[in-house]
Amino acid sequence: MDQQPRGRGRGVPAQNVWTTRAETHSRSTNTGRQQSTNKQPIKDIPRSTRKFEEACAQIKASVDKHVAKLTEELSDSGSEEDETNNDNSIISTVLNLYGKSSSELGKIEQVLKDSLRSGTSVCLICIASVKKSDFIWSCTKCFCSLHLSCIQRWAKDSIYFQTEAASDQLAPGQFVDPRKFNWCCPKCRAEYPQTAIPSTYYCYCLKTQEPRFDPWLVPHSCGSKCEKLLQPECKHACLLLCHPGPCPPCPQTVSVTCFCAKSPVETRRCSSQTWSCGKKCSKLLPCKEHKCEVICHSGICPPCPKKSSQNCLCGSKKEERPCHSIEFQCDKVCRKMLDCGHHRCETICHAGKCATCPLALPRTCPCGKKAVTVACTVEVGGCGDTCCKLLECGIHECAERCHKGKCGTCWQMRVQSCRCGLKKKELPCYKEFQCETKCKHIKDCRRHPCNRKCCTGSCPPCDQVCNRPLGCKNHKCTSRCHQGPCYPCDRTVDITCSCGRTKITVPCGRERQTKPPKCSLPCTKPPDCHHESRTKHVCHAGSCPPCKQTCLKVSERCGHICKAPCHTSVLVQVAAPSQKRAGPWEPEQAPKMEIRKLPCPPCPVPVPVTCLGEHETADWPCHLSVPSSCGRPCGRELYCTNHTCTKPCHVVSMNPRNCQQCEEVCSKNRPEDCTHPCGRGKCHPGPCPTCTKLIKHSCHCGLNPQLVRCNELSDSSAPGSTPSREQLLSCKDRCPKLLACKHRCPLSCHSGDCAAQLDCVTTVHVSCPCKRIKKSMACNVRSKQPAISCDDICRRKQDQELKLKEEKERAKREEEERVNRIELEQFQRKFDKRRNKDRRRPDETSAPPSRPIQFYFLIVAVILVAIIMAFMWSRV
Predict the structure, then answer these.
(1) How many structural domains compose the chain?
(2) What are the distances in angstroms from CA 628 to CA 17, 18, 181, 636, 646?
(3) CB 121 within 8 A of CB 129
(4) 682, 712, 744 — which closes off a domain?
(5) CA angle, corner 572, sides to 571 and 577, nearest 5?
(6) 643 in a structural domain
(7) pLDDT confidence of residue 843
(8) Is residue 771 part of a domain?
(9) Are residues 227 and 190 part of one domain?
(10) End residue of a domain, out of 236, 251, 266
(11) Mean pLDDT computed over every residue of the chain
């Protein structure tokens, strides 16, 4: 984004013009010309707009780069294939086994050539080229090749959309089985079942799975024989190598005759084995009277076209009818007396003898439960049982006695669902329940809802007026509401040129895209500037071109004549585009422009001017001929005597206060260890004052902070100063640090290392391993003496304690054994008592057989052994 120079001289470039007079004069002249052409200063572009344009430019550059790369790859692949593959040799290899007939292989040869060229096969789904190494699927009807992934997605989407469309037409609660829908080829619309959705890449002959690309074979081919059954079916297989497109006609030779079998046998190609000799067929037709007069043909002969006089089945009527329709019925009822002698035949025109009287056959009562055989003159009455016929409701049965005629109305109450299935209500069975719910399904126009109460789902066609805007954008459609686009508007509009003397007629709506007709007459529009007339030009559309004549107005400020082009009526930009582009593919919107009267540009005549600081004199344009700053620093010494004036060139005065005040902080060197700024703050003449601020400094041990003067601390660093730095920073307390013996340092707050362990006099207590012998001594003494060991008394005491512990364990084991014996005796007594009780039951015949006493003693012994082992295990 362009930046305009600041300050006076807005049209002058932001550089130092105070160099040489020749450069200054040329620059000022160019500046005047530039200002004469720029009628209005350009507004700053918003940051968001600039970022959007940069993003669009990057996207467009990326797309161009991608397109160029694809073009280069295609050209490179084409050149490599031309160098490595010989198309004619590949085609001749594929067609080698067919024969030398080229007229029947024209189509398949063209398909092979297209498959060998790069970029000729395009997937109709993704609109991308089908490469020779891509996985493909070929339609069995139109033989177009598509990407395998594309056709899989196409088939699934087709089934999904059909299922959704069918679901919209169903009532609530009903479902659609998606398995009944088929998918179709995108090109020929040939339908395939869902089981035919491809999942694996095969060659053209469907023998090899995922064939590898071979530059010496047809792409996507396995290289073996096709061997597909030829069409029409002749029980012969294709002899070509695996190839795209349809198989050629069968090349085998057979001996056949014509359709009528009158001509001698000929040897012909299997694909054209059916032929006509051109003679009349002369076969006897089904009427058995005439012969076929059609030229030798295939299939059965057509019906006999001649007419003959024929009788109806009953023989009462005779008509002239086509010969091939031998039998026909008239409308007369037979009315012959039946065998019973009481009734007549009611059958319409029939051949042969009339049937038996239907009333003489076995008949049933009105309800159909009882069958009787009576004379045809006797009427069968009711059986007296309940009718039990199904009523009109289709749910309940008739509860009356067996009767003749129609059953009555069903009055039983039942819960009925409305037609739409949303609500239920208990009503008499014969009444139909309709709810008040309005149908929300969309009608066939796909715009308006049905709104019919209790709709069954079969919504009526929409009867509203379409009323959608037509393509002309001027009128609305008056047809019944419908799907798809409306018919185009049938009206016309006259378009005239700017002067209105030439016109053309176009369809309504085309007036926005149609340019006005060209007119060769001169333009008659008056000038909109201060000149008396325009430059002559022919009639045109839009506004006239801007006036190119010289302005020639006299400037009121300097009296010079304006030599710029006419600027009384100039088209200028007043607003930026209101909407942003969605991407680089959309055209840029034009900004809002208006015709305005602009003032004369600044006068560019050069005039000598001296700068304010009297540094130099240079030529400036007339409109800038006022003394101004040259931009150089002033350079005079300030009051602080340490800096010079850095203000741009300003008015020269003898008073130094005219220059800037020194606002810099004092930058003189501070004393050692002093981190405070100068007490006077700003820059000043002479030396800085002494720093007397208190400093909070930690002592040597780091526990107690010390307050000292900044100048005292900095002076204490000098050798021989009193007090020294060691004394100032000492808190006089005992040092908190620990020695190697884990005792506190005996010295006061100090710097450096603490005292050695030999200087530690802290009292410590020492004992033997059994804690009986105890002594007290100093820490430095303990480090020099050996450790205290146990004596004979200590050892005798330890032996007594060990014996006492063993005696307690022995007594505990004896007590546990006594308790186990008592429990065993109690168990034995309880077991003997139960055994005696069982012996006192002689009346029980199904008692279990007695066991010997040794068996029970064995069980008791096993239990005791287990208890003892568990006790011993717990002791271990």
Answers:
(1) 4
(2) 12, 11, 88, 19, 17
(3) yes
(4) 744
(5) 120
(6) no
(7) 47
(8) yes
(9) yes
(10) 251
(11) 79
